[in-house]
Amino acid sequence: MDTLMHVKIWGSADAADAVEQELFRLDKLLSVTGESSDVFLLNRGRRAQLSDEAAELLRSAIALSRRTDGAFDPTVYPLVQLWGFTEGTQRVPAQDELQAALDNIGIENIEQDGNAVTLKNGAQLDFGGIAKGYAAEKCAALLQTAGVEAALLSLGGNVQTVGTKPDGSQWAVGIADPAQPAQAIATLRFTGSLALVTSGGYQRYFEEDGVRYHHILDPETGMPAQSGLASVTVLAESGTLADALSTALFVMGLDAAAQFWRSSDDFEAIFITDDGQIFATQGAAVLLGDCEFQEISR
Ligand code: ADP
Ligand code: MG
């Protein structure tokens, strides 16, 4: 998944091996560039019989795309490629190239009948906005089944806690300061299992002529989303949901995202604006320690 992962487990070294294997297995299944992955084969052949697991994740991705009105879009790959984010060939595309790629994307171009999937109209699948959260969720389930006491997974910006540490102390999860990502701008404290996923424009980007272009694309314009947000952290029971929503809410911007939260009951969120202000939904606000923030209420 092209990132650094840390896993800390209280209880069993065997469980650590199992998590490592699970992460490599999922990377192989879901990677957009891995030449034997379900996603790669589908993108190349336009038609494929997916594994049960990839088919199930695709159903979730399509549902989340509908729910977010397309802000999360698992078919953005033609755009991601155009911007050169997967191959490391970053450049600013010309307007006609962008338009051509925009014409290709959208979940209406996916035909799914059970495990049989066809991509129409040049669309291509990319689970980049959801795969790490899904992997965290799967590993958490595996660790719970293995009966470990507690675990902390950090999969490239996707944090997943499992259980409570043996000494009963709280988890402390920092949210990176978008202006200085090595430092925390806020810390969340809680006990128990939770997924916390951050999407930020500071994570992966390139610069051209003094302008910064990051990797979270607005499926409406084809451009890096410029919504006034520097990062969004989503807290949820499901890592898959948290990952898709962190990407989607980043694209939506603060006002639309707050409205989206008010009509939902399965996540909380923390927003950091381009000018460094922190906003937290009610359920996230109670986990924030000493820092200045504004609360978003129902
Ligand atoms: P990260 O992968 O850095 O944790 P995200 O979860 O926000 O951040 O995912 C960004 C990745 O998802 C991009 O690298 C790209 O592959 C893909 N992507 C970009 N824009 C979108 C979008 N609007 N909807 C779905 N996936 C996207
Ligand atoms: Mg995401």
Nearest-integer average pLDDT: 96
Shape: globular
Distance between the termini: 36 Å
Radius of gyration: 19 Å
Task: Please give the order of strands in the largest beta sheet.
Answer: 1-5-6-9-12-13-14-15
- Provide the structure class: alpha+beta
Walk me through this protein's architecture.
By secondary structure, the protein is of the alpha+beta class. The protein contains nine helices and 15 strands. The strands form four sheets. Strands 1-5-6-9-12-13-14-15 form an eight-stranded mixed β-sheet. The protein has a three-stranded antiparallel β-sheet with strand order 2-4-3, with helices on one face. A two-stranded antiparallel ribbon has the order 7-8. A hairpin with a 4-residue loop joins strand 13 (268-273) and strand 14. It starts with a strand and ends with a strand. The chain binds adenosine-5'-diphosphate and magnesium ion. Adenosine-5'-diphosphate binds next to helix 7. Residues 129, 197, 199, 243-244, 246-247 line the site of magnesium ion.
Note the topology:
Blueprint: E1 5-10, H1 13-30, H2 38-45, E2 47-49, H3 52-67, H4 77-82, H5 95-104, E3 110-113, E4 116-119, H6 131-145, E5 150-155, E6 158-163, E7 171-177, E8 180-190, E9 194-200, E10 205-208, E11 211-214, E12 229-236, H7 239-252, H8 254-262, E13 268-273, E14 278-281, H9 282-285, E15 294-296
Parallel strand pairs: 14-15
Antiparallel strand pairs: 1-5, 2-4, 3-4, 5-6, 6-9, 7-8, 9-12, 10-11, 12-13, 13-14
Helix pairs in contact: 1-6, 3-7, 6-7, 7-8
Magnesium ion (MG) is lined by residues 129, 197, 199, 243-244, 246-247.
